Amino acid sequence: MSLAQKIKTIKKHIHLIVLQGIITLAAILFFIPVFFIISNSFKTDAEINLDPIALPHVINFNNYAMAWTTIDFPTALLNTFIITLVSTCGIVLFSSMAAYILVRMPSKLSWLIYLFFVFSILVPFQTFMIPLTMLSKDLGLQSILGIVPIYWGLGCPVAVFLYHGFIKGIPKSLEEAAFVDGASIFRVFFTIVFPLLTPITATVAILNVLWIWNDFLLPLIILPKQATIQLAQYGFFSQFNREYGPATASLVLSSIPIVLFYVAMQRFIVKGITDGAIKS
Amino acid sequence: MFRSKKTKALTFAVFLAPALLCYSLFFVYPLIQGVRYSFTDWNGIVPEVPISFDKAEFEERILPRLAKTDQAALIRVYALDAEGVYKRENLDPKTMAGLKSIFNSIGITPIKFIGLDNYREMFNSTLDPRFLPSFATKKVFDKKEALPAQISAPHSKGLLKSRLGSEERMLLDSVYSVDGGGRRLQEEYREVTLFNLLYGYSSLDFDEIEAELEQLKQMAAEHRSEQQAFARIDGIKTLAAQNAEDREAVRSILSRYYKVFCTKELLDQYLVENDYRFGVIGFTLFFTLFNVILANLLALVLALILDQKLRMSSLLRSIFFLPNILSLVIVAFVWSFIFNRILPSLTGIEVWLGSSRLAPYLVVFVAVWQGCGYLMIIYLAGLQSIPRNLREASSIDGASPLKRFVHVTLPLMAPAITICLFWSMANSLKTFDIVFALVGNSSYVTDTTPIVLDIYFDAFNRNRFGYATAKAIFLCGIIVFLTGIQLYFMKKRETQL
């Protein structure tokens, strides 16, 4: 290796080390607020008031126990889980069916229906938030399962849009062969087409899980207090906003499920987000 | 594949029905209702069909004006209770609609259509002073107070900028000496000094003098000339009774008093501060602008660094993305703890979110912290879609890293940048959760109310559903407009490629 080449590789190494330093520092700064929350959640209120920056002397879980019972965490968790699961399943199923039929039976009508779905992506939720509240009251939907069809309605447009784009790229030949064998369209859809949609289904599911799990405004105006994790969190923090011990513990507690979900599904989430963003 | 046209149509309907039904019921129907409400003065509480009527009103004013069938319909629904009031039960939507049209026909409409009044009110700063940015000026000095001993540099500059006449400027210069950038009150014009001097002359008739001072004050308020004031001073009787020396001295004191009064008038009128307030629109624009620029810049830089072959890059990426998977409520509370407890004890500055100077920036800061991870992921995907050989080729050609970035990476990143810019723009315009949880009810005080929060307060705290919905439709219009621009740019680029 010549001297010039050596200098070049050394230069490159230094360059990388500097970048590594910068980005690591940035990541630490980024994480510090979360770190403070975690560290204070193990302290007593007296300790926090004395010095919120110091590390806890003893790890104690009293704050967690209090947050757990006051929030009624198991119920909130179960409620949020049910809402997210049923809503996401419904959105996936209904919009893949709708998109499939809109692509495979092209006509003026199906194009119009497609546009009818897609225009809603532009409309902010707040435009119809108030009438929606009234409607849900009239229909008696102010419950855990009642909010689910609302999520179906609100989630379908984006999902139909994503599925529509994907299905257009799938060759018809496989389905046609099955039709020739005499399979019904339902069988063809569920046994042949739906498995082929897995990549986009993953995207749709992940986008919807993140949205519905973290959603705040719709549950706030429709569900009773404390029903979901976000609502319970909001109520708890507002109520205990001077008792930082339980408040910080509740923050950690309510973040744990979604963080675990992220850690488990990291690859799919990253892919889902990029696909979702680029396609819409 | 279908036996008949009928089965084809049926299949089409069955596949489409669930999605279309939910969508129409929970999106399209409320949207249409929303547009309708935005033209009304509905407060969100009064039901569209009245719940109860007075006995006399119901029997004398309503029933006689209706046809027989309509009367029967009403009597079926409204029953007279023990207290002599006609009340109705809860009704199904169909009966409700029937009753609504009956009441409409005789002019009983709890919800009034007021045309575009809601839309006009938004842009009328006297009716809704919180919505639009305001540039009001605030008085700094009131003429009932004593003259300030000093005028600070910015106030002094403001005074010179205001339209002072040459006489007024001379007056100001004689009463206040220039001191650095600001001004200082001359010793001989201090009211305490004047008072002590004047009351040193025990032979004066002070009742008359005081009455005269009041008169002089009045003349200053009327902007009379100095000559007129001096003439009045010369006419004071108790002055004429003094010896010549004392007379001259008292006259000079009184004329200085007059100058003090005039200066007070001048400062009262011209010593003002610009009291600039964002208003809802202003803050929404401020937030959108800064959030879009800062979040995208930070995300792009992070993506460019993480795209290198670094250690732990997947852990680092996760850390930057972490705030994004947390809900905005949690993010807001994390930061409200940091702002309320950690930062005061780190820096000694007590007030963070409560300060109207700091709060707008802090809100943007938290939004950037939360949102830039998402944008970073999209930028990373954009970077990774650039073929390696393209970049390597340019580096072999000897292009410097900066040149490579500007001429190779950036143009190929253009689609990702467009996506991110417009995504974050639409989201910033719709921001709600973060401010709601971070600042909440005090957001009007610190001037950090985004439009959606304002809509929420209008609807649920002030019970003005119609007005709130009109604002929401205004927001919708803006977003549709921006998306139109985005589509235009993307189309244009596609044709260029």
Ordered list of secondary-structure elements with their pairings:
The complex is a heterodimer of chains A (280) and B (497).
Chain A: H1 3-41, H2 45-50, H3 62-71, H4 73-104, H5 108-118, H6 126-138, H7 147-168, H8 173-180, H9 185-196, H10 198-214, H11 217-222, H12 229-239, H13 244-279
Chain B: H1 5-37, E1 52-54, H2 55-62, H3 68-77, E2 78-80, E3 85-88, H4 93-105, H5 117-122, E4 137-139, E5 150-151, H6 153-161, H7 166-175, E6 176-179, E7 182-185, H8 191-198, H9 206-221, H10 226-234, H11 237-240, H12 244-270, E8 272-274, H13 279-306, H14 313-325, H15 328-347, H16 359-384, H17 388-396, H18 401-429, H19 433-438, H20 451-461, H21 465-496
Antiparallel strand pairs in B: 1-3, 2-3, 4-8, 5-7, 6-7
Helix pairs in contact in B: 1-21, 7-12, 8-12, 9-12, 10-12, 13-16, 13-18, 14-16, 16-18, 17-18, 18-21, 20-21
Total helical elements of chain B: 21
Number of helices of chain A: 13
Categorize the overall geometry of chain A. Answer: flat
Q: Tell me what portion of residues of chain B adopts beta-strand conformation.
A: 5-15%
Main sheet attributes: strand count, strand direction, barrel closure of chain B: 3 strands, antiparallel
What does the average pLDDT of chain A come to?
A: 88
Question: Whole-Å distance between the termini of chain A?
Answer: 50 Å
Give the beta-strand count of chain A: 0
Which percent band covers the strand fraction of chain A? under 5%
Largest interface, Cβ cutoff 8 Å: A-B, 89 and 87 residues
The rounded Rg of chain A comes to 25 Å
The helix/strand order of chain A is: HHHHHHHHHHHHH
What gap, in angstroms, lies between the N and C termini of chain B? 41 Å
| Low-confidence regions of chain B | none
State the helical fraction of chain A: over 70%
